[in-house]
Amino acid sequence: MRRPTTSEVRRPATVLALLLVVVLVLPPLLSAYWIDVLTAVAIYSVVALSLNLLIGRVGLVSLGQIAVLALGAWVAAKLAFVSSIPFPLVLLIAGLITLVLGTLVGLPALRLSGLYLALITLMLAGAITVVLSTTNFPNGGPGFLSHTESSFGNPAVRRPDIASSDPAYFRFTVIVAALMFALALWHVRSRPGRAWAAIRQSEPAALAAGVNITLYKLWAWALASFMTGVAGGLLAGSVGKLYTYQFPTRDSIILLAVVLMGGIYSLWGAVVAGALMKLLPALLDDWGLPADLLIILFGVGVLQVLLTAPGGLAAQVPKDFARMGGGLSAVVRRRLAARAERAPTGTAPQEPAP
Amino acid sequence: MRRNGVFARLALVLVATTALAACSSNKSPSTTTDATTAPKCGAGTGQKATGEPIKLGAIATKQPGTDFTDIPNMAKAFFDCVNDNGGINGRPIQYLIETEQTDPGQVASLAKKLVESDKVLGIVGNTSIIECAVNHSYYEQQGFYIIDSGIAPECYSTSNSAPVNMGPRYSVDGATQYLIRQGVKKLVLDQSNVPGTGYIEGGFLLIAQAAGIPTESLKDNVPIQDANSVALKAVQAAGQGGGVVLNFTPPEALKILQAAQQQGLQDRVKWACSTPCNTDFLANALGPQWNGKLGVNAELNLTTAAGPDSELYRAVQKRYAPNVALGSFSQMGFVEASIAVKALMSVSGDFTVQSVNNAIKNIKDFKTDILCKPWYYGTAPLHLPNNTDRTVVPQDGKMVEKEGCFAISDVDPAIAQVRRIEASS
Amino acid sequence: MPDWQNFEPFIVSGLALGGVYSLSGVGMVVLYRTTGVLNLAFGAVGAMGAFIAWSLINTFGWPAVLAYLACVGFGAAVSLIYGMLAGPPLAGRDPLVKAAATIGLALILLGSMSWIWSDKARSMVLPTTNWRYSVGQVLINWTQIIALALGVLITLTTAVFLRLTGLGTAMRALANDREITAALGVPVRRVEATTWVVSGALSGVAGLLMSNLVGLDAATLTFLVISSLAAALIARLRSLVVTLAAGIVIGLVNALVTPIFSISPYRDMTPFVLAAVALLFLARHQQVSFARRIT
Asked: Which of B130, C75, C255, C286 is the most exposed place for a label (fewest CB within 10 A)?
C-alpha cells in the first residue's frame, strides 16, 4: 500500500472542514430567512446531483426529475402522516419506493436514446403533474390519498425529533445531502463509475468489453430516482405543507439549465446548480431585481455552456481563478525581476561610500 | 475570437429586442399631462418627509397565471403620496414588498425575513393564495395584526388578520346571490384548481341549498389551455336557464369568457364572476357583446365613483402608479394603505411593533366611500369587516353598477357570526 | 355518463384544440426534418411576436395588419439570428444538444416577456374570429378553421416540397449530415438561413393564432409546445401527416373527455399519456443497450 499523496489527503480533509463549517458555524450566523433559503439549496443540490450523474456520467437526460421529487415528497408525507416511523427511516423508504417507481419507468424508457428519452421523461413528468394537481398531497386527511380539502388547521409534515427547529433541520438536511454526495462519489469511483464511463465513451466498445449496459444504465437511473426521492422527503419535512405549485414542469427545464451551467463533469457542479436554482433568486429579490432576469440568465447560460464551455461553472471558475492566479503571479514575478535588474548589487540603499 | 463573437451578437440581439419592446410597453395608454395639483394624502402638507423611515412589509403572489402585485403596488403609491405630504409626523414610510410563488417554504421564510431581518413594524397589503395559511400562527406569536386582502381561508377566520375584501368564498356567495335574483334554475360554480376549493364552494352550496336550487361544482387547472372546452362544460352543466359563477384570476376568466363568446354562449346561461373580474381592463377586453351579461361581485365601489376617497384613489394612481390598472385590486391596496396611515397617525410615543399593531387593532369606524360600510379591526376571533357588496356589469368597456350595496347572506355561518359580533359591539 | 348530445359540441372544440396542437407540432417537425433541430422555442418565439403585435396595436395604434406582419417578421428574424449563431457550432452534435440549446432561447424569450409585459389580462382578437357560422349547436369561427387548414396546408406543401424540389432535397441532406452536404457543393448557409426564416415566420403566424385560440399569456404559449410535442413524438419526428393526425386525435380525446366529470380533471394528461404509450409501443423491440433513435 503506497502512502497517500498530500493532495489526496488534502482534498477530503478540505471537504470535511467545509462541511463542518456549514453545519456548525453557519446556522447561528444566519437569519431565519437565509437558513430557509440554504435548506432549499441543499435539497435541490441533491436533485441536481441526480441529473448531474445521469448526464455527466452516463449521458442520459431526464426532464422529469421534478416530478420524481414530487413523488418522493408525496410518499414521505404519506408515511409521515399514517405511521410513526422515525424520520430518517421515512426518508430511506421514500427513496426506495421512488427507486422502484423510477426503475419501472426506466425499463421501457431506457430503450429510447438521447432526445427521445429526454422527451418521454418530459411527457411522463407532465402526466404526473396533472395527476398530482387533482389528487393533491397528503395533509393528514383520510383514505389512500390522505388529503382533505378543508384547509383549516391541517398539520404539517412532521420533522425528526432531534431536528425540529429550522436551524437544526438545516443541519440535518446538509448531513443527509452530504451522505447523498458521498454515495454518488462512491459510485463514481468504483465499478459502476467505470462502467458508466465506458458506456458514455462508446456503447459498442463497452458491450464488446463485456459491460452489462442494461444493468448499469438501470442502476444509474435507479440511483438518480433514489436520491431525488430522498430529496423529496427532505422537502416535505422542510416546508411542511405541499402544493402542486412547488413542482411545475417548468422547473424540470430550469433544473436542466442550472445543471448544465453548474457543470456536469464534477460533482461540485450539482452544488453550484442548487445555489443557482434557490440561492440566486433569493439574492436577486434581496437586491430588488426582478426574478424574470434570472430566467433570461439561465437561458443565456444554457447557450453559453452548450456552445462554448461544456464544463460549466464548476470547471470554468477554478480555471478562471487559476488563470487569474497565474496572471497575478506572473505579474508579481515580472515586477520582482524588474526590481532585481534595477538594483544589481541587491543591497539596500546605503549612504554613498565616503 | 469566435467565442466572443457569438456572445457579443447574442447580447446585442437580446438588448435590441428588449429595448424595442420596453419602449413599447412603457408608454401608458393614457398619456395625459402631469396633474398640476399633486394629490394630498395623509397630513397633506406638501412637504417631503425626511425623518427616520417607518418600515412596513407585504407579501403577494406573483407567478404565471396569478399576479396580485397590483395591490401592494397601489398601497406603495399611497405611501409615496403620504411621504410627499409630510409622512407620519415627518417620518416617511418605507414599504417592503416581497413576492412569492406559492412555495410554502418560501412564504414562511419571507415572513421571517420581513419581521426578523427587515424589522418591519407592521404588515399591510398581503395578498396570497396560501400566505395566511402558512404564516398566521407566526403572526399571532409575534404580535402582528395584519391588514390584508386574502386569499386563503385563514385570512378570514383567524384573530390576527383583518381583510379589506371578503375573499373568494364570500365574493362567490355574493355572485351566487346575484344569480339567484336573476331567477336561475341551476347553479354551476367553476373555479381554478388551487388550494382551498373546498372552502370556497362551501358558501355557494349552502346558499343555493337554502334557495332550493340544484348545484354543480367544477374545477379547472390553470393556466387554461382549452378554454373552449371549459366554457362548454360549464354551460352544459348549467343547462337551460342555468347560471355559471366563475372564480378565476382575470387573465384566466378572460380566456373562458372569450371562448364562451366565440361560441356564442354568452346568452345561453346567466354569467357571474367573483371580485377578481372587477377590472376595467377586463371590461375593455370583453367588448360590447358582454354588455350587461356578466354580473361581477364588487367588494368595493366603482373605480369611477364620485366621493373624496375615490377621487383621491384615482389621483394617486395617475400620479404615483400609472402602470397599475384601476380596479378592485388597486382599490384594495389603496384602502389598506389608508387604514395603515390612519393607524400610524394615531400612535403616540415611539413606533414599535407593539405600538403600531395596537393602533391597527384599535381601528374602528373607518369610513371610506370605497367600501359599503365602515371598516374595523378589534379583538374578535375572526374578522370580516367587509361583508356588504355591490354587483357591477361590463358596459362599453367599463364596469357600471347594477346592484347597490347588499348584505352577504348569513346562511353562511361565518357571516352570521360576524353579524352577531357587530351587533354586540 | 352524459348523452350524445352533450358530446357533440365537444367534437368541434376538440377539432379546434387539435388544430392548435397539430399546427405547432407540424411546425416543429418541419424544422426538425430540415435542420435537425427540434426547436423547443417554437412557442416562445410566436408568443413574443404576438405580444409585440399586441403592443403595436394597443399602445402605438398601428393598423392590425401591419402589426401581424411585424409579428411574423419578428419570428422570422429571431429564428434566423438564432439559426445562424447557434446552428453551425452545434451542427455535428447530438439532436439532444441542439434541442437543449433551443431551451436556452426559449428561456431568454420567456424571461424577457415576463419582464416587459407583466401578467395582465390581455387579449388578441384577430378579425377572423368575428366571422362565424354554426355547425349544429356550436359556433365555429374562422380563426379555428385557419389553424386547422394551415396545419394541413403546411403538411401537404412541405411533403411535396421536400421530395420534389432541389431546395427541398438540399434541406433534407443538410439535416442528415451538414459536412457532407457542404462538401457536395450545396450552399449550406443559404439553405439553412432559408429554413430558419420560413420556420420562424411560421411560428409567428402560429403565435398569432394561438394567442387568439388559447390566450395571450407568456407561460401558457411557451409551454404549449410540450403538449404539441406529444403529436410530434407520436410521429417519431418524421411524418408530417402523422403529426397532423396525432394532433387532431389528441385534441379530440382531450375535449371529449371533458363532459365526463369523473375523469375530466385528468384530461390535461391526454397528450402526455398518448405520446408515452405510442413511444414505448414503437420502441418495444429495442433493447436497453444500443438504444437508438427510432428511425
From this structure: C286
Q: Is residue C187 part of a domain?
A: yes
Contacts of residue B250, defined as CB under 8 A and 6 or more positions apart, other chains included, come to: B276, B277, B279, B281, B282, C120, C121
Q: Is residue C248 part of a domain?
A: no
Do B275 and B415 sit in the same domain of this protein?
Answer: yes
In a domain, B34, yes or no: no
Residues in chain C closer than 8 A to A54 (CB atoms): none
CB of B403 closer than 8 Å to CB of B385: no
Judged by a CB distance cut-off of 8 A, whether residue C138 touches chain B is yes
Q: CB under 8 Å to C92, separation ≥6 — which residues?
A: C178, C179
- Residue C167 covered by a domain: yes
Q: Which residue of A has its CA nearest to B110?
A: A33
Indicate the number of domains in chain B. Answer: 2
Q: Both B288 and B403 in a single domain?
A: yes
The mean pLDDT of B95-124, rounded to a whole number, is: 90
Chain C positions in Cβ-Cβ contact with residue B225 (cut-off 8 Å) = 17, 214, 220, 224, 227, 268
Q: With 0-12 CB in 10 A as exposed, 13-18 as middle and 19+ as buried, what is B28?
A: exposed
Q: Which helix (H) or strand (E) holds C142?
A: helix C142-164
Residues contacting A298, CB < 8 A, separation 6+: A254, A257, A258, A261, A276, C104, C107, C111
Instruction: For A231-259, write each residue's pLDDT tens digit.
Output: 999 999 998 888 887 898 889 999 999 99
Do B283 and B359 lie in a common domain?
A: no
Please report whether residue B5 resides in a domain: no
Q: Which of C37, C51, C96 to mutate to test binding with chain A, by most A CBs within 10 Å of its CB?
A: C96
What's the domain range around B345? 54-166+306-386
Residue A259 and residue A61 in contact, taking contact as beta carbons nearer than 8 Å: no
Q: What is the mean pLDDT of residues B361-380?
A: 92
| Residue B228, domain member (yes or no) | yes
Bridge-based pairing state of the strands B66-67 and B93-100: unpaired
Asked if the Cβ–Cβ distance from B102 to A245 is below 8 Å, we say yes
User: Please, what sign has the CA dihedral across residues B161, B163, B169, B170?
Assistant: positive
Which pLDDT band, with edges at 50, 70 and 90, does B406 fall under? very high
The domain segmentation of chain A, as residue ranges, is 27-257
Helix, strand or coil, per DSSP, at residue B297: strand
pTM score: 0.84
Q: Does B62 sit within 8 Å of C119, measured CB to CB?
A: yes
DSSP codes joined into one string, B81-95: HHHTTTTBTTBPEEE
Whether residue A300 lies within 8 A of chain B, CB to CB, comes out as yes
Dump pLDDT digits (tens) for A180-209.
999 999 999 999 999 999 988 888 888 888
The secondary structure of B366-385, three-state, reads: ECCCCCCCCECCCCCCCCCC
Domain region containing C150 = 8-128+135-225
Q: Please name which of B232, B142, B139 lies closest in space to residue B188, comparing C-alpha atoms.
A: B232
Give CA–CA dist A35/A240, Å, rounded. 15
> Interface pTM (ipTM) of the complex?
0.88
CB-CB: which of B99, B101, B109 is closest to A33?
B109
CATH number of the CATH domain containing B185? 3.40.50.2300
A292 vs A297: CA distance, rounded Å: 9
Residue C72 lies in a domain: yes
CA distance C79 to C89: 16
Shortest CB distance from C56 goes to which of B24, B67, B255? B24
- Contact C265/B193, CB-based, under 8 Å? yes
Instruction: Using a CB–CB cutoff of 8 Å, tell me whether C81 touches chain A.
Output: no
Distance CA C217, CA C48 (A): 10
A-chain residue closest to C228, CA distance:
A123
Position B217 in a domain? yes
